[in-house]
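User: My instructor asked us to take a sequence, write out its structure as tokens, and then describe one feature of it. I'm not sure where to start. Here is the sequence I was given:
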Amino acid sequence: MSFKKRRPLNLQENYDRQAFMRDLVAGLTIFVMLVPQGMAYAMLAGLPPVMGLYASTIPLFIYALFASSRHLAVGPAAIASLLVLSSVSAYAEPGSSEYISLVLILTFMVGAVELLLGLIKAGFLVKFISHPVMNGYTSAAAIVIGVSQLNHLLGVETKNFMQIQFLIIELIENISRTHLITVAIGLGSVITLVVLKKINPKIPAALIVLVLSIITVNTFQLDQRGVTIVGDVPSGFPALTIPNLTPENMFTLFLMVITIALIGFMESLAISQAIADKEKYKVDPNKELRALGLSNIAGSFFSAYPVTGSFSRSAVNHQSGAVSQLSSIITAVSVLLTLLLFTSYFYYLPTAALAAIIFVAIVGLVDIKTAKYLFKVKPLDGWVWVVTFSITLLIGIKWGILVGVAFSLFLLLKRSSAPKVVELGYVEEDHEFRNLNRITEAKRLKDTLMVRIDSSLYFANIAHCEKIIRDLLQNTSDTKWMVIDMSGVNDIDTISIKVLEEIMEEYQEKGVSFLYANLKGQVRDSLTNADWDRKYKEKTSYITMDHLLEDNDIGGKRNTAQTDITQDNDDYMI
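Assistant: Let's start with the prediction itself. The structure tokens for your sequence are:
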């Protein structure tokens, strides 16, 4: 059996019967995970559990047809489900027909945004969601998810809140109504999931819990003793429905649509690229955006809610031997057969068991170790994590990601507007120019100030650089030469050029000559266009610092075995 002539679903040229069997095993393995997870995550999203199964059919087919990743397993996911609940519960009661209608609109809009971003090749936008922001957000959201499931595990009714403090207050106020049989089912489910995972991660623990809980409730008629169950689950495939796209609804949901689209794509891209790196192939971010967009748009017409890549299922898909997206097709077909033939068996499924599946699944998303590492290596990144985490936890998940991104961009702009400008000294033993404040062996040269600018120069940071240069000149007497090492400058704008010209002209009258070394090609081009070749050619024609100092007889006699820049580097062409 060979598929060499036609290669849909990212099939490789050597796809054969053995590869098909690997996809078959992986697809069925993911199916076993997806059925209980899909139903649990739908409940987390405030939707009927069956909608988790709807979201595991058509979207998987569509994604498989258009994706560049061979291993990403899409479908319902914890963070996206919580975002759906947070987005829509403010406007309708979870589980109501109005709520479901708004979720379908949300799904369509998420897909449309992802598709549009993919078409205009805007996949780079996710780079503005930094790792500290994403990690802090995910950790806080996981805690909110876990606490939000405690009411199902305890068998008490609480209001839907997205802030941890209000969730805890609700639980405390209703703790006296705890239903002990429900607690036993929930606790037993959690213990079973944890123990089976420790024994062997490949054991389908969630499916086992699902089956055992159904049998237990049915056998002892626990639903008649106060245990909340899923109840009737519609069989068959959902009818085609058209989302009610009104301007009012679209405007109401727009902010969270952007958030869900970007976070969903970022999660998908992170896991797909990690697996692709291991398997030595490339993932196209824009193609992934288009595939996710089309899958969500199609899903919105068949009662699905937003899908994204799943870390756990994608990892299992890869570990199970999948070699193409045919595994996703097999998973979708299996879920479809379940909808057609087996939904009646879910009647006695207790919601406590679904809550236990969610609770155990999200524990691994709480990542405090990363926060410690960030504070150790780069404290500012640690504070980005803390701000994102705190806002998500205390104010709400719809604000966490936005404030986190805004704060990280603020710090980025702040750093960019105050680049390092270091004074250099000459290290005789190593024949190098080094930071005077870091290297004790570095010494100033006679009558000379030397600085290195470690950033591109533009309108927002040139004033900072100018101030440092002026301060150095003011605080040193008898300076005749101001030498600027431009090796760290990759670009320069017109405002910066004008400021440098003004400083040079001013200090030329005071007997201080400015000289520039290590000009990169792009910077030199800009200076040439600004007529520096005519006005300041003698100040900018130096490829290295040694070259500059020798030609101008600066600093006395030195050993000039220069090692930092060589003349054959194209970046420093005159």
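For the description part of your assignment, you could build on this observation: The first strand starts at residue 74 and ends at 75. Try explaining in your own words what that tells you about the chain.
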